[in-house]
Amino acid sequence: MSTISTYHYTKTFKLENGKKLRKLDIAYQTYGKLNAKKDNVIWACHALTANSDVLDWWKGLFGNNALFNPDEHFIICANVLGSHYGSTSPLSTNPVTGQPYYLSFPEFSIRDLVAAHRLLATHLGISNIKVLIGGSLGGQQALEWSVLDPGAIENLILIATNAFHSPWGIAFNESQRLAITADRSFYAQKPDGGIKGLKVARSIALLSYRTYDAYAATQLESVNDKTGGFRASSYQNYQGEKLCKRFNAYSYWYLSKAMDSHNVGRGRNSVTEALAQVKANTLVIGIENDVLFPQSEQEYLASNIQGAEFYSLKSAYGHDGFLIETDTLTNVIGNFLKESTNKKIIKLHKTA
Q: Per the database record, which ranges form the AB hydrolase-1 domain (predicted)?
C-alpha cells in the first residue's frame, strides 16, 4: 500500500506566464521499489479530477497482478498543480496574505504541470522513466513532458489525448466555466463557492465523456408511460452531486483553463516540429467514438511522432473508455512494451 507524500519546493516557482508562486507543494504516491539500475519507473499522469492514487482510479491496468504492478515496477503518480488533493491549489493558503488564494491564484498551463512533475522527479533522484502514460489531460502532460525532455522517456503511452486542445474541447470547457461563474457564490471566497455551478459543469462534461449509445444502454426507460422522473435526469443529478462531494469549483475552473492552454507548438515554430522532438517509443491509443477527443486527433499524433504505433480502441463508453477498457489496454500496451524490449535487445546486440 501507499500513503500520500508531499514534496515541499521552497524556492519560487515561476509559471509559464511569468507569474510566481512563493512555494509549491506536490502531493504524490509511489508503489513498489526503485531497482538498482533505476530503470523500472512507471509514471502515470492523471486526468482532470483524479488524484495521485492511480491504483484506485485506474484499476485493472495498475495494481497487484496487473500489467503495472508494485512487485515489478516503481510506480509514481503526482497530484497536479491546482488540484486540491494535496498539491498547491486555489484552496491553499497564500503565504503573502495568510488567506486561501481562491480567485487570486495565478492561471497556469499544462507546461507548468509538467514543470512541477520534473521538479519532483529530480527530488526523487529519477532521470529516466521507463513508461510515461496518461489519458485525456494526463496524456497532454505526458506528451508535453516528452517534448520538453525527450531523452528522459523510454516509452510513451498516449490515450485519448491531443497535440493541442481543439476549439470543440475549449467550447465544452468554457460552457462548464460559464455554469460555474453563473453561481454567484463562486465569488464568495469560501471553500464551497460555486458548488451549484460545479454540479451543472459536471453534467455538461458527462455529455462529452460518454455517447448517445452509452446513455441508450444504461439510462433507457423500461416503460413507455413516463412523463417525468427519467433515469437520465437522475443520473445527471447524481453524477453532479458526486463530484461536488469530492472536488471544488476553483480547482475545476483553473484546471479546465490549463487544458485549454495545451499546444505543443507554442514557441516551437509548429506543432509538427514539436512532435518531431519526441524520441520515446510511442504508442497512441484512440477511442473510435470519443466525442471530446476524436480519434482523428490521436491519428494525427501517431502520424507526426516518429515511429509511433496507433491502436483504435472500441468502447461503448466513449472518452471514458480509457478508464474502463482496462482488459484491452492491458493486452495492447503489454504487447507494445514487449516489442519495445525486443527491439532494444536487438539494437544492443547490433552495437555490441
A: 45-323
Catalytic residue flag (residue 109): no
84 is catalytic: no
For residue 210, say whether it is annotated as part of any ligand binding site.
Answer: no
Pick the catalytic residue from 25, 183, 260, 290.
Answer: 290
Domain with 186, as residue range(s), is 170-258
Question: If you compute the radius of gyration of the chain from its CA atoms, what whole number of angstroms results?
Answer: 20
- Tell me the per-residue pLDDT of 76-100, one tens digit each, with 9 for 90 and over: 999 999 999 999 999 999 999 999 9
Residues 231 and 281 reside in one and the same domain: no
Q: Is 118 annotated as a binding residue?
A: no
For the record, the C-alpha cell of 86 comes out as 494535496
Task: Tell me the mean pLDDT in the region 10-36.
Answer: 97
Domain count along the chain: 2
Each residue's pLDDT tens digit, 293-331: 999 999 999 999 999 999 999 999 999 999 999 999 999
**How buried is residue 316: exposed, middle or buried, by Cβ count under 10 Å (0-12/13-18/19+)?**
middle
Of 83, 89, 136, 208, which one is the catalytic site residue? Answer: 136
Cell of 21: 508562486
